[in-house]
UniProtKB/TrEMBL annotation, chain A:
The keyword Transmembrane applies. It comes from Lacrimispora algidixylanolytica. Pfam families: FtsX, MacB_PCD. It is found in: Cell membrane. This is ABC transporter permease. The chain crosses the membrane at residues 21-44, 258-278, 313-335, 355-375, 428-449, 657-684, 705-728, 748-767. Keywords: Cell membrane, Membrane, Transmembrane, Transmembrane helix. The lineage of its organism: Bacteria, Bacillati, Bacillota, Clostridia, Lachnospirales. Belongs to the ABC-4 integral membrane protein family. GO terms for cellular component: plasma membrane.
């Protein structure tokens, strides 16, 4: 042995059992930090992927600039890509058609399609000549086209524009939903066909200049520079807020609120890691205080003892950090796999064995830094052990008691338990802080669930994959088509709705307008979740009964009798229930009445449907959709909402997976932290418990004693954690939700209930383990337990 | 005299195979009510193991221990704990007082564990006998070693147990305090008719006892009367 520090590995071998707990704590803290940071990293990556796919990979859009300015901007070194983008007939109201369907005409440069859109071209290439065009894929199937074929676009002035197909674009959710097409032309050709403008400025062609910056540059500085160089106003520049925000490059005030919230949550996670390691080290040192006393006796200086403790702690890191990081990485891989499985369209690009450097760095830093920081106080404590105390056996690891327990209020076992909890102020604060922190973490992170519910609309059960809509919104789709669709093997569910818009109605003596809508069995079933009062069944089975949809200025209520005036006659309908909302929008002064198909037919005399909604089976293919499209024919609008639905699903899955993942992890932190803290507290008092048992303390009384101590921490921790947690919950809610959606904060009772239940369960688990351990140990072993 | 403790063919083996250690070998002896006995022996001879087995803190490998005609090891754990609380008092070398309780509370501790109300006159009497009346509200860390051991004796006496087991009760005390402790234990055996079994290293302290037992390599030898007389 050359140095006293070589004693460290020897001591580690001897105290392997005791050290195991500390090593486990470090592994767990590193694991949690790695997972949380890794999840956050992967979450951001998945969101960036989705944002690029949905909105494009551009950073800013510039309006009202000329071609010369655009050229200068694109020549800047930090600009990686740029393109003009203009669109004609976007809303389908300009009269451009292709085979009788609306067609949107967009003009851009190649970079817009190949560099600023992800996976835009399905087949072929960007137009190389002005008479070439890219066409959306839905036209390929519907019109039986291939590359090289000619298409003719009819213009509103009766002319025809001919193009050769250079390739096919992947479908856009808008064109799919509206059953329309889109073509992409070169900028030059687009401007030349743009109606009513010759030699105009780009803005005259409804064109915007999109810019993509290098990911390494400071985008905000570049934007400011461009602004001052070209004298641009704020209105002329708009950013791709979501993408910039995810890249950490946004100065959008909402994004800044999100960043500051993320910082608060980051600090909380870091603090949880530090607390876990500190309490484990403290307990480890306390149990070996005699050993350090003996070291001092033999001649070690306090400084040497401190170095010893620190080296020992760092020795644990050697094993604990790699294990923690490895476990964290494996969990992140699993999560990425789940994400790929849930929404392959968006997350197929997620790496199979992706490594998140920020999470590994965070894991290492948290491991080493917290161990060093956490070792400071126990090292000081170890160094302070008096050599005399060690040799006389009076080096009691337990804190000096200053006040006696009150045995008059509670039974002696419970009183001693409480006293154990509060006898050391420092330990009490540390334990309460550790309990509180779990609650604070839970309450703070739970705001992200509200944020998710506000920022994303989940796919409702009634959201159809396909809709067949009457072009004039009349009851013109025959029931036989519905029957045919219901029999189709690719269709899971098909149901129709009949609409009668703006019917004059007399409500309580006043004449108003209402939209009358028919529901069938499925739709009535879904409506039950929104029932405020009354009965859905009565509306479904009764004659001339209906449901009203709540509106602030609603004149009709449950129990009212409304007289509807249709073309041929007038008839009464009784309102038998009120729904809080419905999937339909209409004007503020137009009411909505939902009734059964029979009632609708009786009242209006109409028998056919306005809309048929289809929900496809899981195995339905593109061919199935094409087949359905063909037999539905071209006389109706064939709205394909699948692309839109998959986007909503993708966002919801990724957000949900990470947010609920975080919450689960925090619950585990809480459970582990409580179990670990109590286990360590019990270990520190093992000898004392042995004496108590020798004197006559029964196992049941011992459990009561440990339970009382745990409850003292849990109750105080819950009060402190609840108070601070609620404060942070409110603060984060205001930043993440109220700021953007204006919703007022309410006390999150369900979340409080959940975390308190978790704490209670953890307390039960925490007491069970050590109590069982002590019970199984002989009293002699407990007294001599080290 | 009534027999309080009867130890029959007691053996205790630690470890297994080659590492087996026979801590006690076929130990048989008994103690009567009010008898004050000392167990002497070298370190590692098996004295503490004997005391731990008698106090039901450790389970013997074979043999029986009868306290007041009751076999300690046929009882269930909970039952045995309550029996120990009521019938056996312990005095440890390092006092083992409850740091969170005052002198008075420490003395009353076994009664409090029984969820009974302590008889205040008994507490007063013990405090008086131990000379701790003016220290009754002090915490253990405010007392000297001798005073702490007196509190431990008070705690052992409060339930009026039939047997008091003392493991080196003077091990951490100076000679003056040691003699005081022995005198107190002697007084207990005479005044309250309590049976006392004390482990000690100090041969001088066996002058006050009725009987001396020697343990050597796990074998118990009854030396009969005071060891000093035997040795002399």
């Amino acid at each position: 042995m050359k140095s006293y520090l070589e004693l460290v590995p020897i001591s580690a071998k001897v105290h392997r059992r005791q050290n195991r707990m500390s090593v486990f704590c470090i592994v767990l803290a590193v694991f949690l930090v790695t997972v949380i940071f890794g999840m956050a990293d992967m979450f951001i990556r998945s969101q960036i992927m989705q944002a690029r796919m949905e909105d494009g990979s551009w950073h800013i859009a510039l309006r009202y600039i000329n071609d010369h300015e655009a050229k200068l901007i694109s020549a800047r070194p930090e600009v990686t890509s740029s393109s003009w983008y203009g669109i004609l007939n976007y809303r389908g109201d300009k009269g451009y058609t292709l085979s009788n369907k609306n067609v949107a005409i967009l003009g851009s440069e190649e970079s817009w399609i190949t560099e600023m859109q992800i996976d835009a071209i399905d087949e072929g290439q960007y137009p190389q000549k002005d008479d070439e065009a890219l066409l959306t894929k839905n036209a390929k199937a519907a019109l039986g086209l291939k590359i090289g074929d000619q298409i003719s676009i009819n213009t509103p002035d009766g002319k025809s524009l001919s193009f050769t197909i250079s390739g096919f674009l992947n479908d856009f959710s808008k064109t799919m939903k509206e059953d329309s097409y889109a073509v992409c032309l070169t900028t030059h050709e687009y401007r030349s066909i743009y109606p009513g403008v010759t030699n105009g400025e780009p803005a005259d062609y409804n064109s915007i200049f999109y810019v993509q910056f290098s990911s390494r540059c400071n985008i905000q500085n570049a934007i400011n520079d461009i602004k001052s160089q070209f004298g641009l106003t704020d209105e002329q520049i708009s950013g791709n807020t979501k993408l910039l925000g995810l890249l950490g490059q946004s100065r959008n005030s909402f994004m800044i609120q999100i960043y500051s919230s993320a910082f608060v949550l980051f600090m909380l996670v870091l603090l949880a890691g530090i607390l876990m390691i500190t309490s484990s080290l403290n307990s480890n040192i306390s149990q070996r205080i005699e050993f350090f006393g003996i070291m001092r006796c033999i001649g070690a200086t306090p400084k040497q003892v401190m170095t010893f403790v620190r080296k020992e702690a760092l020795g644990w890191c050697k094993f604990a950090i790699p294990y923690g990081i490895a476990a964290g990485i494996v969990l992140i891989w699993t999560l990425c796999d789940v994400l790929r499985y849930l929404s392959p369209k968006y997350f197929i690009g997620m790496p199979y064995f992706g490594v998140s450097l920020p999470s590994i760095m965070a894991g290492i830093c948290v491991g080493i830094l917290t161990v060093l920081l956490a070792a400071r106080s126990p090292a000081k404590r170890a160094a302070k052990v008096s050599p005399l105390a060690a040799v006389t056996g009076n080096s009691n690891a337990l804190p000096t008691v200053r006040k006696a327990a009150n045995t008059t209020l509670f039974k002696v076992d419970s009183s001693l338990g409480f006293q154990h909890a509060i006898s050391s102020k420092k330990n009490f604060i540390l334990m309460v802080a550790s309990f509180s922190l779990s609650i604070i973490l839970f309450l703070s992170f739970s705001v992200t669930i509200d944020f998710m519910h506000h920022s994303l609309t989940p796919l409702k059960p009634w959201t159809p994959d396909l809709s067949i809509i009457s072009p004039e919104k009349t009851c013109s789709i025959s029931g036989s088509l519905l029957e045919q669709l219901q029999k189709d093997p690719a269709v899971k569910r098909a149901y129709g709705r009949m609409f009668a818009y703006n019917l004059p109605a007399t409500v309580n003596g006043e004449v108003k307008k209402v939209d009358l809508i028919s529901y069938e069995e499925n739709q009535f079933k879904w409506a039950k979740d929104y029932l405020l009062e009354g009965s859905v069944e009565e509306a479904q089975s009764g004659n001339n009964t209906g449901l009203t949809v709540f509106k602030q200025q609603n004149a009709s209520n449950t129990g009212d009798i409304i007289t509807l005036h249709t073309e041929n006659h007038s008839a009464d309908i009784t309102i038998v229930g009120t729904l809080s909302s419905s999937p339909f929008n209409n004007g503020p002064d137009v009411g909505t009445i939902i009734c059964s198909e029979n009632t609708f037919r009786e009242l209006t005399g109409q028998v056919d449907y306005t809309i048929i909604d289809l929900k496809l089976t899981k195995n339905a293919t593109e061919n199935d959709v094409d087949r359905i499209h063909k037999y539905v024919g071209k006389e109706f609008i064939f709205s394909d909402g699948r692309l839109d639905n998959s986007s909503v699903k993708g966002s919801y899955y990724s957000f949900g997976l990470f947010i609920y993942g975080f919450m689960t992890l925090i619950s585990f932190i809480t459970i582990f932290n409580i179990i670990n803290s109590i286990a360590m507290s019990v270990s520190a008092r093992m000898k004392q418990y042995g004496t108590f048992r020798a004197i006559g303390l029964s196992n049941r009384q011992l459990i009561k004693m440990i339970l009382a101590e745990t409850l003292a921490y849990a109750i105080t921790g819950s009060i402190c954690g609840g108070t601070i947690g609620l404060f942070l919950n409110k603060l984060l809610y205001e930043k993440l939700v109220s700021f953007h959606w204006g919703e007022q904060w309410n006390v999150p009772f369900p979340e409080i209930g959940i975390i308190i239940t978790i704490v209670i369960l953890s307390v039960i688990l925490a007491v069970r383990g050590p109590a069982r351990r002590i019970r199984d140990m002989s009293i002699v072993d407990t007294i001599s337990a080290q | 005299m009534m027999e309080i403790l009867s130890v029959q063919h007691l053996s205790k083996i630690y470890g297994e195979g080659k590492n087996q250690v026979h801590a006690l070998k076929n130990v048989t002896f008994s103690l009567d009510q009010g008898e004050f006995a000392a167990v002497i022996g070298e370190s590692g001879s098996g004295k503490s193991t004997l005391l731990n087995c008698i106090g039901a803190l450790d389970e013997p490998t074979s043999g029986n221990i009868y306290m007041d005609k009751k076999d300690l090891f046929t009882m269930k754990e909970e039952q045995r704990t309550i029996f120990r609380r009521r019938n056996i008092g312990f005095v440890f070398q390092s006092f083992q007082l409850v740091q969170e309780l005052t002198v008075e509370q420490n003395i009353m501790f076994p009664i409090l564990l029984d969820y009974r109300k302590p008889d205040q006159s008994s507490v007063e009497e013990i405090l008086e006998v131990l000379g701790l009346k003016d220290r009754r509200h002090h915490l253990p860390n405010q007392l000297s070693g001798g005073q702490q051991q007196r509190v431990a004796i008070g705690r052992a006496l409060i339930t009026r147990p039939k047997l008091i087991l003392a493991d080196e009760p003077t091990g951490n005390l100076d000679s003056k305090n040691s003699q005081e402790v022995i005198d107190l234990l002697f007084k207990a055996s005479r005044h309250y008719q309590q049976t006392i079994l004390m482990i000690t290293h100090n041969s001088n302290l066996t002058t006050s006892v009725d009987r001396v037992l020697r343990v050597s390599d796990g074998i118990l030898t009854d030396l009969g009367g005071k060891e000093n007389e035997k040795l002399s």
